[in-house]
Amino acid sequence: MALEPFKDSKALSMGVELELQLVNTTDFDLMPSAGDLLHLLERNKFPGDVKPEMTESMIEIATDVHTRYDQLLAQLRCMRDALVTAGDRLNVALCGGGTHPFQRWYDRRIFDKPRYRELSGLYGYLAKQFTVFGQHVHIGCASADEGLYLLHALNRYLPHFIALSASSPFFQGIDTLFDSARLNSVFAFPLSGRAPFLLKWTDFSEGYFAKMEKTGVVKSMKDFYWDIRPKPEYGTIELRVCDTPLTVERAAALAVYLQALCRMLLEHKEAPPAEDDYLVYNYNRFQACRFGLDGVIVHPKDNVSLSLREDILSTLRRIEPHAAALDSQAGLDDLQREVSHSGNHASYLRGQFHEAGSVNGMVNAAVNVFRQGVPT
Amino acid sequence: MPENILHLLADIAWPAAIAIAWIAGEAGYRWLSLPRISSYGIAGFVMAVSQGGFLADPSGGPVVLLANYAFALILFELGYRINLRWLRKNPWLGVTSVVEATGTFVAVFLLGRLFEVPVVASLLLAALAMSTSPAAVLRVANELRSSGQVTERVLHLSAFNCVFAVVVFKAVVGYWLLANDGSILHVLWNSLVVVAVSAGIGALFGVAVPGLLRTIGRVDQNATIAFAAAILLMTALTGSLKFSPLLAALVFGLVARHQRMILSQAQRNFGTLGNLLTVLLFVFVTTTIGWKQAQTGIYLALSVVGLRLVVKVLVSTAFARLGGITWRKGALTGLAMAPMSVFVVLLLEQSRHLNLGALDQVAGVAAIVLLLEVIGPLATQRALIWAGETHRTGEH
């Protein structure tokens, strides 16, 4: 089956998907409750889209298509409140965070749906270890070629999103010393990583994809776990490296950062992306996962080392006019505060761990932050 | 020489019984998928002296303290899992609890009268029938690593109806004492004071132990032993003062939880200690029953067991949608509430010093205990499996 045509969509429109954790209120371990929660949500009109994910302790929510920050944020907050209310009725707590800090993967229950059972059969323990929680941001593209251009032009900014969203310092009960341990789980999959360097949609769909399909390794775009992938049926590119932040407010800020960045890139004032940009790609990505905002990355064009923190701050300044045009400066201000003062959610979680003295107490803090919207 | 051997046999009777029951539990679990605790109960019944076995009726002996301790550990864990905030967020849960307990009480009382059981005895029987034994429910849920709405609700409802049962039972005992010896002090002491002081002791432990742990630091490592030791002390204390160790343990867990000190996963079941004591607990319960005793009240017992289950299933189903779950999960919650044996036996054991002649008239109690010791856990197990809340093994 050939890849479907890339549906044109409104340029710079955006949509957010969040994978959320369902935990119990006693020891804050993951709690397989997706079915119960979905049943209750179906009975009242949910202000957005909600669906089960691979394991029963996870649900995924998705917003409508937005162009404005305030509307995106308003919908995310509505969805958050509806989820929290439903969770309260069932004694189920919800939280963000890229990993559950102490769940054991062999305890997970796979959601009863043929595709998930099939994946579970194929990937074995990887599927359960894949109980990690990410934020996906879709950006609408006026054409397929524009989408591929953006996908590759973003390569140098990808570490920004990893560091800004990082919220998975703990995994299987220990501090991994990574800010985003979640991405290490994603990299274990054979079809993860980056998309091939192709800038023409025909080359991508009739060349690369058709050949891959012939090998029998993939059936659809869903089988690729790339950091950014085109989504032809929506006419978007989808950024997939973000951990689910602890708050929906941060999720909205990350989305408008991407939106404003894309607007700047579409001016074509920066040097065009090239295959050689990817020489430093994995290294930079590692730096962001491991050290978060303290990472040091290498600029792909001139090979200069940059502090990730400085690079984000200067990028925030450069995109200010675009944020003004998109009316999203408030979201970027949130990120600016994060980078220069408060630190990312991974450091917040580490602080909570030390304060509470246990990983359970840390999840309790994450539950409260998700509910209230601001880390205290 | 034979005397020495007899002594030796008497000395090893209980350890041997525990070993045998454990083997029976594993065998029943593997080949018949029986909940382990059902097999422990059957083994205990067969080994009891009244059935020609070698286990003397342990009532009043040191085994009772251990059984009480085993149950107290379970009740503490249950209390710790109870989220009182949930009642505020979902009032229908509270309504379900009150209606199912009251409904059971009224229905069983009327049934008792129909069987021409005297009024006071019927009241006591009805009070006991309200309860769902937390021991069976929690053990089965942990054995299946079950979690979901049926599991959560059955644990909460079980904790609540046990509290109702203790309070009503003590009230009826008070009424009975009043009718018999008329000393108002004696009456108050055995009802109000016992309930209040037991809960008070539990609350005191619930504040003191977490406070102590916080002072020591390293909460996650010390907690299991500290709580186990505290519960042992509390069981001995409340037991010898003739208060209710059951209520105290439940309140202890409840208060400790709301101190917001979070236990880690490793402490579920109190580990190996809890597992071992559970064998003893379930063997103990059925050794108190003789076959003859059970036989005489069998019709009443069957009626009570059936009626109680019907009421619980009906009420829990009726409020299911209002409470936010499906009809099906509501019905399964009711089914999972079947067990009651351990709770009843220990409550009666603790009331032994009162010489409750009234209850001896209810021949059916022994049969109820025996029936539900085996069927109760099985009902809970099936309900949780049918609700799809258990951990399916064998998947990759």
Characterise the protein shown here.
- The complex is a heterodimer of chains A (376) and B (396).
- Chain A has 376 residues and is α+β, with helices and mostly antiparallel strands.
- Chain A has one domain (14-372): 2-Layer Sandwich (Creatine Kinase, Chain A, domain 2), CATH 3.30.590.
- Helix content of chain A is 46%, strand content 15%.
- Chain A contains 15 helices and 13 strands.
- In chain A, the strands form 4 sheets. In chain A, strands 1, 2, 3, 4, 5, 10 and 11 form a 7-stranded antiparallel β-sheet that branches.
- In chain A, helix 8 (201-215) links the parallel strand 8 and strand 9 (225-226).
- The longest helix of chain A is centred in the N-terminal third of the chain and has 22 residues, at 69-90.
- Chain A is globular.
- Chain A starts with 13 loop residues before the first strand and ends with a helix.
- The mean pLDDT of chain A is 91.
- Chain B has one domain: Up-down Bundle (Na+/H+ antiporter like fold).
- The relative contact order of chain B is 0.17.
- Chain B is an all-alpha fold.
- In chain B, helix 5 (91-114) crosses helix 8 and helix 16 packs antiparallel against helix 18 (364-386).
- Chain B has 18 helices and no strands.
- Chain B has helices at residues 2-32, 36-47, 62-81, 84-89, 91-114, 119-130, 134-143, 149-180, 184-216, 219-240, 245-258, 271-287, 291-296, 298-318, 327-336, 341-350, 357-360, 364-386.
- Chains A and B meet through helix 1, helix 2 and helix 15 of A and helix 4 and helix 8 of B.
